[in-house]
């Protein structure tokens, strides 16, 4: 008897984890005033791999902000920021040094969306953002 096998792509599984609220996302950053894109993000990780730091995942896209205007969606996985990979970097470093920056500065995100094969590239300009 032959057994049928199937696989689910890695990023599809990670996006489902976030959308279903399973505990595979580390803390979110929402404080003070800074130049940003209007995204709340978490960092994916593999609980079976010690000290694994995965890519960022979009938890929320704020209305009227640059990320919303260019088409970033909740559940999108950010694989690169300005052509630098997000996987393997510490969460705080990603937020402070990559996601945030001077108001008016351009930033490019490479996104993997669960519903699409190809990666998406979005470029936007940081605006003044107040965290909660």
UniProtKB/TrEMBL annotation:
GO cellular component terms, A-Z: outer membrane-bounded periplasmic space
Gene Ontology MF annotations: endopeptidase activity
GO BP terms, alphabetized: signal transduction
Record-linked InterPro entries: PDZ, PDZ_6, PDZ_sf
Gene3D superfamilies to which the protein is assigned, alphabetical: 2.30.42.10
Limits of the PDZ domain: 35-96
Recorded superkingdom: Bacteria
Name under which the protein is recorded: PDZ domain (Also known as DHR or GLGF)
Organism encoding this protein: Desulfatibacillum alkenivorans DSM 16219
